[in-house]
Amino acid sequence: MADSKYALLIRLTDDKQKAAAERMGLAQARLTEARSRLEQLDGFRAEYRHRLTAGASQGMGIAQYQDFRRFLTRLDDAMQQQQLEVERCMQRFLLEKQAWQQEYKKLKAYEKLLERESERALKKQARAQQKMTDEFATRRFWDVKHGDQN
After folding, report:
1. What is the CA radius of gyration of the chain?
2. Cα angle: 12, vertex 16, 17; to 5 degrees
3. Those residues with Cβ within 8 angstroms of residue 30's Cβ, 6 or more apart along the chain or in another chain
């Protein structure tokens, strides 16, 4: 069959779908990285809290205690910022996923249209073939019936 009217649409949509999938993958990687940083900060904060508790139970000077508290406050602030980054990355990922899904749906719709077009063409071809066969059989019958055999 000659190139379908849908072939160009399918190629273009496939390219867009692949590009959207790549963007979604990058957004997912950024989200994973942001979550990992948040987990690292959380681990670091837990370690420092443990050090503060251990130091306080063994006797710690006020200046050292205040330094620990200031550092923990900075860690908490960093964690809040990183949590915002995780949320921003999640929103970006969801947008990219939605864009990919839309392109994927378009691609599948065009492929379905192409499939239907191919089915219609095959049916049309089969009908034409059947018509030719019927005409040949009718002529043959006529020729046999009326003695005109070639």
Report:
1. 36
2. 115
3. 89, 92, 93
Identity of residue 36: S
Measured CA to CA, the distance from residue 127 to residue 119 in angstroms comes to 12
Percent of the chain exceeding pLDDT 90 equals: 56
> What is the reported pLDDT for 1?
41
| pTM given for the model | 0.72
Rounded distance between C-alpha atoms, residue 143 and residue 150, angstroms: 8
Q: Which has the minimum average pLDDT: 32-41, 46-55, 76-85, 140-149?
A: 140-149
8 Å CB contact between 103 and 17: yes
Please compute the mean of the pLDDT values over residues 53-63 and round it to a whole number. Answer: 82
Distance of CA 50 to the CA centre of its chain: 42
Both structure tokens of 55 = 């130091």
How many residues are there in the chain?
150
Rounded distance, CA 113 to CA 118, Å? 9
